[in-house]
Design goal:
single chain, alpha+beta, two-stranded antiparallel sheet, 26% helix
């Protein structure tokens, strides 16, 4: 879906995001957010989907798609719909590689994650907090992360409404 279409099926979670808001968040996270994600936050700062949207996860053969309830926005850490709060929940910041942020959640409370650095910048992953994480040589691994899409822009384009 395009951003305009996403706006039609979502409610904004926070007031419009400013460059100052994003710069402050990036300093706090010690990460540079991908341009495509920054553009979304300027347009729609967090999105609560009603009805839920769906996206394909190619490696889950038994399920055709997963639901997306929310894309987090730039708000303070007291809001459960903020990127800051998502970093704290489920010990996210201690359980996944540090270059990832949680930028959305499913109906089942799994996290949709975005890579903000390295060769996989802009890649979108699914993280299931109920699964344990592993370290190899004191480095957090991707073992319990499932690649959804190598591009955030393409991830957004893959979202769809399920027909009842």
């Amino acid at each position: 879906m395009k951003i305009a279409e996403l706006k039609e099926v979502s409610d904004s979670v926070f007031p419009p995001c400013t460059r100052t808001d994003l710069d402050a968040l990036e300093r706090e996270l010690k990460l540079k957010l991908p341009k495509s994600y920054r553009a979304v936050l300027f347009t729609q700062n967090g999105m609560l989907f009603s009805p839920q949207l769906y996206y394909p996860v190619p490696s889950f053969a038994d399920e055709d798609a997963w639901s997306l309830s929310l894309l987090f926005g730039v708000g303070d850490s007291s809001s459960s719909w903020s990127i800051r709060r998502a970093r704290i929940g489920y010990d996210f910041g201690k359980r996944v590689p540090p270059k990832l942020i949680a930028n959305g959640c499913t109906h089942g409370d799994e996290r949709v994650c975005l890579s903000c650095a390295g060769d996989d910048t802009e890649s979108v992953y699914l993280w299931q907090p109920g699964l344990e994480w592993e370290e190899e040589d004191n480095v957090r691994t991707y073992r319990y992360l499932t690649l959804i899409n190598p591009s955030f822009k393409d991830f957004l384009a893959s979202l769809y409404l399920k027909e009842e």
